[in-house]
Amino acid sequence: MPYFITDSAEGCSGWATVKEDGEVIGCHTTKDAAVEQMVAVSLAEGIEPGGERALPENYRPALAEDVPQGRACGNCAFYNEDNIQESADGVKAYCERWDDYVRGDHYCNAWQPHDEDEGEDDVEDEARILIDVPEYIQVAAEKGLTYQRNGYAGEGLTDQTIEEARQLRAGQVQDNKVTRMRAWILRHRQDWESVPRNNNADDPDFPGPGAVAAYLWGVDPTAENGTERVLEWADGVLAPLATDEERFDVKELETRALPMGEFTVADTEDGQKTFTGYAALFGAPSAGLPFTEVIAPGAFRRTLSRAAEGKKIISFLFGHDETRALATTASGRLALSEDERGLKVEARLDPADPDAAGVISKLTHEAAAMGMSFGFTIPKNGDEWDEDVRTLREVNLFEVSVLSAGQTPAYPATLGLTAVRKVAPRMGVDADRLISALESIKTAQPLSADEAEVIDTVREKLGPKRVATDPSVARARLLLSQMESESL
Q: What CATH number is given for 57-114 in this structure?
């Protein structure tokens, strides 16, 4: 992550040395002093200094009299809504033109429309792909627009979001909006799912800004399955349009774990702690799976590149608990990299954070019983199978976790839904039906008639036979046996 200098950092009256995400690492009375620190920390980390970061003087509110109507950072081609930052003066998004974070309701003279660099044929092709929006999304968007008009929306809401909400309400959007809906919902669902004022209509503070945002993006945050319903719709829309871009199915999120191994917890000058360790090792055969799995060098390269570009956020968690995030790539407190050993993790932990303090204490006293893990999905053609050996060639990484004793990942972490999908066709059953049945068995829920039929089919297929058992059936038998034992 490059370091910069600026004279507009919050909390500094003069010059400051800052990280790429705006975090201040030092305030200075002179520009030269800021430059010296920028160079020193850059050299220490072996990276090029970022230089001076400054927005142009003509950066101003979009409602200023001299700003052309309809133009704002929020609908500018340089405005990256996938890379946001919260600050004292509202939510900002990354500007690719000025390499800084800007407000969606501001403007500068470098404003460009989204389609300026696209050929006419591309624009026409994109315009032809119109997607019909289901009624429940139309209703949600209408509620969002009503709440926004009544002043319930938070700061940083862009004109583009409002305009696209109107399109959702009208019942048709372009396919690229569906792509962004899916990504936005996955990134922000915790803003309403864990906050009563954003998901409980009976809460005295409802609707909060998170609820309004959810409605504007087509999600009813008060509905029990409101989020999943929109995600399933988006998946159905996008599947026929799939390209080489990163795609994933949250239902197939897998986790892998390994013993803690070598790690360090070092003090920093500002009283923080820096944890360094490995969440994955290249070429090391897996343990505890009904097949052998290895991770190929370079498997994380693409996903880490996307995180470095601000196109996705990876979290450092305790026990895969999203409510206990210790650091993220978005905040700059989590740095992930590949080296010759595997996936290296460097995280800055704040001892004032109770969760971080607990992890630091466990690492000090209970490291032998702890482990590291990572949560991921596999994109299309991201893995290879050779008999019983699965090689992960590309991984979509979502989080890395510290595990304490007893937090060994359970299904689907240990078995992996991908493995179920591999063996189901060999047994003559539908993979989704088999997954549903196995989940019911694990949670000791009564089987539906359909699930019982699937289990009967599997049992008949795996029942004792006088002939030699096919290896693929043996693997399936092991899979089912392990799932049934976990449910007891």
A: 4.10.490
